[in-house]
Specification:
By secondary structure, the protein is mainly beta. The chain has one helix at 10-22, and strands at residues 2-9, 34-35, 44-47, 56-62, 68-78, 87-97, 108-115, 119-125, 135-141, 144-145, 155-158, 170-174, 180-187, 207-210, 214-218, 222-225, 235-238, 241-247, 260-264. It has one domain (2-264).
Length: 266
């Protein structure tokens, strides 16, 4: 896991985030996520995962600078010839917003990126002094699988502006009968408050599953928690590890089951 955080003008936000995702991470000799697109407009990036035997296809594209960029996933991608668009197999994308309307490209945006060989967590936050600021968290890629042979265990969840079909649901690439983009239910321990006994914050591990399959896995690097005692943007310590607190706004739909999310920093 590698964690990045910073603040940049909106015009540089997408390139900065993508640079962190595709960088050669500390201790590595090659990048975990590799660009397969012959055109930037395709925005296809793939990883073989921590097992070295996966093919995880994520999508990152520049969109409306000063407002949003595009992220998503696909079952597969076939590159085109040079300067020719490739072909996606079952793609879905969403707009990751940091404002609800386009703003000046020089406005500074705060970001966090937590990246592994399996998945990417992105958080973007617009200037809180400007009306319509967003506080969006995205989890995209392969979570912890309870079956290591589960090749289609790829997910997408977004707070603030998630699709209506995935309000409090996890968008799954495929289920056990190969239905595409299936909505899965969250299963988690609902903590009654923070801090808990011993003056500790409680991390709620976000499991997921559906009837007929049971539990399929859990998120890694992103957790829920009770929002009491939490302040947006704070760093907290839980059992010697650091987490960033994100308090999601009640704007349209939230795919996560909690309004308070914790992004692992170390």
């Amino acid at each position: 896991m590698t964690y990045y955080t910073g603040s940049v003008p909106a015009r540089n936000l997408f390139s900065t985030i993508l640079g962190h995702i595709t960088a050669v991470q500390p201790g590595e000799t090659t990048s975990w996520w590799k660009k397969e697109s012959s055109l930037d407009a395709d925005g296809a990036y793939t990883s073989v995962g921590s097992s070295g035997t996966e093919r995880i296809v994520l999508v990152f594209r520049e969109a409306n600078v000063g407002r949003e960029f595009t992220a998503g996933f696909a079952r597969d991608y076939t590159p085109g010839a040079v300067n020719t668009a490739g072909a996606f197999d079952n793609i879905t994308t969403s707009q990751v917003k940091y404002f609800t309307a386009t703003q000046n490209q020089d406005i500074v945006i705060t970001y966090d990126v937590n990246v592994t060989k399996d998945r990417v967590i992105i958080h973007v936050q617009g200037d809180k002094l400007i009306s319509g600021w967003q506080n969006t968290v995205v989890y995209l890629g392969m979570p912890i699988r309870y079956d290591s042979t589960d090749k289609r265990c790829v997910v997408f969840a977004q707070s603030e502006n998630a699709a209506a079909a995935y309000n409090s649901k996890l968008n799954f690439l495929q289920d056990s009968v190969n239905a595409m983009f299936k909505a899965y239910d969250w299963k988690y321990v609902d903590s009654p408050g923070n801090p808990s006994w011993g003056n500790n914050y409680f991390l709620e591990t976000l499991h997921f599953g559906i009837v007929g399959e049971g539990l399929r896995g859990e998120l890694e690097g992103l957790y829920g928690t009770n929002p009491t005692g939490m302040v947006d943007g704070d760093d907290i310590d839980v059992l010697g590890e650091r987490y960033k607190v994100v308090i999601v706004q009640n704007y349209i739909y939230n795919a996560f089951p909690r309004t308070a999310l914790l992004i692992k920093k170390s």
